[in-house]
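User: I'm preparing a small set of examples for a lab meeting where we compare how different chains pack in three dimensions. I only have the primary sequence for this one, and I'd like the structure in token form so I can line it up with the others. Please keep the answer compact; I'll paste it straight into my notes.
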Amino acid sequence: MEGRGPQQIANQLRADKVLTPTAYKKQQGRSTPNPTPENPYGWQDSSVVKILERREYTGCTVNFKTYTNSIWDKKQRENPVEKQAIFPGTHERYHLKMICLRRFR
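Assistant: Understood. Below is the structure token output for the 105-residue chain.
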């Protein structure tokens, strides 16, 4: 999938009959706020972009993504990127198809 754009990757995932994340969760009996898709293999290029933009899939370890104000405050808050600890090259970069096959099948 190297060198392909999000639309081309989405087309390939549809052709390979890889379930979308929502369809996979529904198939596994897990709850999701999204409605059941009409086409369980209907990948959108926006879904591909969201997956590709996750730093964890680029070979980086990301720590301190969330924080709490105190030990009594149980609400998790998003930490800005500049306060996160990012360690590049700590593991092998994932390829989108490998992510989808491991995570969504």
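A couple of notes for your slides: Residues 6-103 form one domain. The longest strand covers residues 61-63.

User: Perfect, thanks.
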